[in-house]
Amino acid sequence: MVQTTCPNVLAHGTCTDRSCKYEHKAYNCTFCSIVFGNQIAYNEHLTSKNHINRTGGETGTLVFCNICEKYVTAKGVSPDVPPEEPEDVPGHNLCVVCNRHIPSRFWARHPSQPQHKEREQFLKFTSAVEETEKDKHGLSVIGDFDFKIVEPERSASGIVQTGTIQTQVPATRIRFTITLNGSTRAISSRSSLTFSVKMTQAHLGRAEDRLELLFEDVQLQSHFMITRPLQVIVGSQADHDMLKPKTPYVPRKRTKRQPETKVVEGEAPPSMKAIPYVDRLPKALIPQHLATSLSTGSTKEVLLRLQRIYLPPVVNSETYGKHFKHLLWTEEAQMDRDLEYYDITDAHLSRFNKYYYLNVPGLAEKRPSVLVGDNIRVRRPSSPEGHWFDGGVHVVRKEDVGLVFHRSFVASPSERFLVRFKLNRIPMRRQHQALDTAFSQDRVLFPTSLHQPRLMPRTNAPSTMRWYNSLIAGNPPQKQAVLSIMYREPGSMPFVIFGPPGTGKTVTLVESILQVLAINPTSRILACAPSNSAADLIASRLTPHLKPTQLFRAYAPSRNKGDVPTSVLPYTHQNSEGHFSVPLSAPPMAPIAHMLRFRVIVTTCVSASIIPGIGMPRGHFSHIFVDEAGQATEPEVMIGIKSMADGNTNVVLSGDPKQLGPIIRSSVARILGLETSFIERLMKREVYDEIEGYGKSVVKLVKNFRSHSAILKFPNEQFYRGDLECCGDPKVINFYLNSTHLVARKFPIVFHAISGKDDREASSPSFFNIDEVTQVKSLVQKLRDDRKLRITDNDIGVIAPYHAQVLKLRTALRAVADAVKVGSVEEFQGQERRVIIISTVRSSKDFVQYDLKHTLGFVANPRRFNVAVTRAQSLLYIVGDPSVLSLDPLWRAFLNYIHKNGGWKGPPPTWDTLAALRSKAQDDMNAFTRMVEALTIGGVRALEDGEEGDVG
Predict the structure, then answer these.
(1) What is the C-alpha to C-alpha distance for residues 419 and 360, in angstroms, rounded to an integer?
(2) Percent of the chain at pLDDT above 90?
(3) Are 389 and 409 in contact (CB under 8 A)?
(4) Which of 531, 603, 645, 911 lies at 20 to 30 Å from 157 by C-alpha?
(5) What is the pLDDT of residues 323-365, one digit of tens each?
(6) Which contacts (CB < 8 Å, 24+ apart) does range 577-581 have?
(7) Are 866 and 501 in contact (CB under 8 A)?
(8) Domain C2H2-type spans what residues (predicted)?
């Protein structure tokens, strides 16, 4: 009789009936996502055609394993069978040195490739080290030379560890050829030798070295070496206990997705109906043939296929929409694939009132990011294939979300579900809707010299003009930008305010808005920005000059009221249920009559879709302003422009193409130009030359009001041709000169060299570095404890390139300075602080075996670097591992600049150039390897005169 699996196990994953006589093991084929009630049925399935076709059959399908970083063959066997690494892969040769399968056409030249040679050298060195760490010839070196974590106060005076050398073989006489404590020492079977190693470390961080003990066997006249690794962490034991990984890092595996043939729709949150849209939002689904094409082949193959089949050969006003729609679909496909990593295979739902709560690991880190209005799908493993329930997200908390399903959905506390996160397509659909509009004027999309203003830009303000910000009147570039925008003819080409860091581009944009309103009573303005924080900044600077009847701040209904600045709240509207909406007029007036009366509407680029969505007519706005335009994709900016502009609408863009651009996940979409913002694309056109087009199409702001000249100098020369002028308030920018916080009293930049360790935990790919956290916390404490130079928490900003490090820093600083802002580079764009501390995180002793991209990741991003180092007013303090940072030419040049000016703290730099750094590391490895080979070849080779060493 076939033993059958318990029905309760099949349905609910568990059985609580103690008298149950069924088998409680389920037979699960993870390839096909089918559960079988007995082993016979399961074994028959493994030989079925469907299973073999799905898994590649006996011949196998070549797949790439991201964990092993190699190609492997997937075969139609039980997933419970341990996988075997294939020796032969069709069309490939296995390189045992690189541990990769190399395509046969590249095999002949592979051994001569630099990466192969570096890997070969590294393996040779590793083998030599492992050999020397073994006890030999009956001689043992006993002792623990890991000094563990040592507090800084103790490490400065020195910590001693003892070791013992003894022999286990009788009648063997072994003599040292090195000097210990001033004399040559010998050891026999009747004695042992005790020695000590003293560790002294003046700086926080990690130190590693190698104890090398060289022996001579007198009888055989042979030499050999025994080594022991030396390591210490100088830091805070409390910080390491608090911040260490709670669970080991295991890369999240991509699950094979189930089909979605039948989806029972859930209930959307009330906020989704807060805006009374009158238009129908297009589905804009990815065409199936395009989806197949995007998921087939290598990046290069997909790229070439898109260019050959789908994209227009020339992008102009007629093909503009088609081009960008395909880039959006390419990006959407990648975003959807990225969400697969967050699928949950064994989820529990707990019910409270009408909500089913789902715990989402990584939700606090926005991995994945879930917002009210999103959808999450669930499926019972026992349900028919393709049957899912859709849950609308009504509540988002720190670690879980509240879902509302169709009324037919009922889940018991013991049930387990497959969970799938779905991409919120509304922002994408709004962009497709805008790209489908008829507006396609060359003067906006592809301006040339033919679109230049016919009149020369005005350079003098009329005597009756009142400046809302009097400082602008004394700043020629800002003044010129405002005048050019004020007196611009309707229907002109876009005007660009090119605003490098700290030059006041948002101030200039706000002044321009106010002056346009002042000289033209019929003007109406739509002001957009990529983020809510940037849009709020525009609104908050307009509120002192405009009444709530003149200015409206439009928010997405899901926006949290607590995130809205107090000064802006009176300029918003909430419906009877407390969700952000738009004020509509009562009958018999037109429903949007109230909205038409506002002179300025401020919103994000994506939420600008609210304006045409409620029926406001094209051409209503005389001007469309976009601040921080470099951070938005071109289709995002076009939501407002293509939906609302007509032949008379003037467009004004403010931003800096040298700072952060939009974040694009698809490498294909990135290569094809989706990462290039609208303002960056325009600035590459000849008509936007900073000199020829000055005042006509562009004004570059050059007076920096933020930073000390030493902080400004390096990015100014690297990114802005040295055009920026230091004009900051001396009381602010010179605040820390001659203070004890500086290494060089006149140079307000400090690089604190520290050798740490970058960690990851659980399934988060984000890095953190506890050693740097301790150093940052120590620095913040010193700054806050300074009674002479008093500052508040709000004067300090801490920037880290990885979200995990941001969270660790916030935890560590909670008891020290809770109000200090800690965030990513993106969170600090457009902001400034008196003190900026940058924790660079990455630290690796094995950098020689990796390439630059692997080692530094997006730390080595010029735009991110530019934003990070230009936020500080008075003091810029960088904490990082110079041996890693110096791999990047830009960082290395910056570190050289700091060192040259005396701002270096900690262990000194050890390089001149990138090549020299890599060469030195390789030379050290090769020298050690040769020394070990000299001792071990033949086993009896004696050292030549002068090769005796010292132990200190």
Answers:
(1) 10
(2) 57
(3) yes
(4) 911
(5) 999 999 999 999 998 888 888 988 999 999 999 999 998 787 7
(6) 577/270, 577/271, 577/274, 579/270, 579/271, 579/274, 580/274, 580/554, 580/555, 580/556, 581/274, 581/275, 581/276, 581/557
(7) yes
(8) 29-51
Cβ atoms within 10 A of the Cβ of 222, count? Answer: 18
Q: What is the DSSP letter of 322?
A: H
Q: What is the pLDDT of residue 202?
A: 82
Alpha carbons 644 and 616: distance in angstroms, whole number:
8
Residue 822's DSSP bridge partners are 798
Tokens of 358: 């789902």
CA 319 to chain centre: 33
Token digits of residue 665: 């996940």
CATH number assigned to the domain covering 285-424: 2.40.30.230
Report the amino acid identity of residue 387: H
Token pair of 893, please?
């040049």
Quote the DSSP letter at residue 263.
Answer: E
Backbone dihedral angles phi then psi of residue 704, each to the nearest 5 degrees: -90, 120
Q: Name the residue with tokens 């651009």.
A: 661
Question: Helices in 562-609 by DSSP H: which ranges?
Answer: 593-597
**H or E segment to which residue 602 belongs:** strand 600-604
Residues 182, 180: Cα–Cα separation, whole Å: 5
Q: How far apart are CA 307 and CA 626, in angstroms?
A: 31
The mean pLDDT of the chain is 84
893-921 confidence digits (pLDDT tens): 999 999 999 999 998 887 764 444 455 55
Tokens 């396609």 belong to which residue?
Answer: 440
Question: What are the residues facing 881 on neighbouring strands?
Answer: none
CA distance 792 to 41: 70
231 and 206 Cβ atoms separated by less than 8 Å: yes
**Pairwise CA distance, residues 594 & 583, whole Å:** 7
Listed in sequence order, the residues at least 6 apart from 193 whose beta carbon sits closer than 8 Å to its beta carbon are 164, 165, 166, 180, 185, 187
Determine which helix (DSSP H) or strand (DSSP E) holds 512, and give its type and residue range.
helix 505-519
End-to-end CA distance of the chain: 75
Which of the residue ranges 80-89, 279-288, 630-639, 668-677 would you say has the lowest mean pLDDT? Answer: 80-89
Are residues 511 and 713 in contact, defined by beta-carbon separation less than 8 angstroms? no
Q: Give the containing element (helix H, strand E) for 650.
A: strand 650-655
Give residues with Cβ within 8 angstroms of 284, minimum separation 6: 325, 425, 428, 429, 432, 433
CATH 3.40.50.300 corresponds to the domain 710-911: yes
Instruction: Show me where the domains of the chain are located.
Output: 7-97, 285-424, 428-452+475-701, 710-911
Backbone angles phi, psi at 354, to 5 degrees: -90, -5
Q: What is the signed CA dihedral for 678, 682, 684, 689, rounded to 10 degrees?
A: -150
How many other CB atoms sit within 10 Å of the CB of residue 615?
Answer: 14
DSSP state of 909: P
Rounded distance between C-alpha atoms, residue 218 and residue 220, angstroms? 6
* CATH class of the domain comprising 428-452+475-701: alpha beta
Report which of 516, 517, 573, 565 is spatially closest to residue 541, judged by C-alpha positions.
565
Q: Are 471 and 674 in contact (CB under 8 A)?
A: no
Backbone angles phi, psi at 288, to 5 degrees: -60, -40
SS3 661: coil
Between CA 238 and CA 244, with CA 241 as vertex, the angle to 5 degrees is 130
C-alpha 350: how far from its chain's center?
32
| Cα–Cα distance measured from residue 152 to residue 236, given in angstroms and rounded to the nearest whole number | 8
Q: What is the pLDDT of residues 846-864, one digit of tens each?
A: 544 444 455 565 577 889 9
Residue closest to 865 by CA, chosen among 679, 749, 654, 714: 714
Q: What share of the chain is helix, strand, coil (3-state, %, to 5)?
A: 35, 20, 45
Report the SS3 class of residue 523: coil
Examine domains 428-452+475-701 and 710-911 and report if their fold is the same.
yes
State pTM to two decimals.
0.79
Residue 783, Cα to own-chain centre: how many angstroms? 29
- Burial class of 497 by CB neighbour count within 10 A (0 to 12, 13 to 18, 19+): buried
Label residue 283 exposed, middle or buried (CB < 10 Å: 0-12, 13-18, 19+).
exposed
